[in-house]
Predict the 3D structure of the following.
Amino acid sequence: MQLCQAIAILHRNRIFCVEVPPENIILDEDGRLHISEFSALRLSDQCVDYPSLTDGYGAPESYKPETLSPAADVFAVGACLYSLLVGQRLAVEGWVVEPEDPVFYPYKVVSQGLESVLRRALQFHPENRYQSLRDLKEALLSAQ
């Protein structure tokens, strides 16, 4: 929830996070989230190619020089959560040929409700994802 809230603050200032590798996330002793690095920030109306993204943590459209939508950061948050829960990054090598669904292995690593939320957040096409971090946060709260 805190990750969604933190990046939503960026959105209110017309900034996209683009990627959220788990190694950039720190929880302090009081359970507060801190993001240690934002290396791929992009203004919402900026078309910039970021070939140096950390594979597996940015939305597919982030690798192209096009204007992003908030759904790109929905993917980035979903990819970070996926990695933290499953213990590996998304397999993105196949995106060039054909989109691959995330694999939740070992099976039952997350609840069916949480898996469903993450699958939607990680859809290859932005229009199939939650359209805002608020929508993702509400879905995560409902999945608990």
About this structure: The beta strands are 15-16, 25-27, 33-35, 42-43. The helical segments are 2-12, 70-86, 112-121, 133-143.
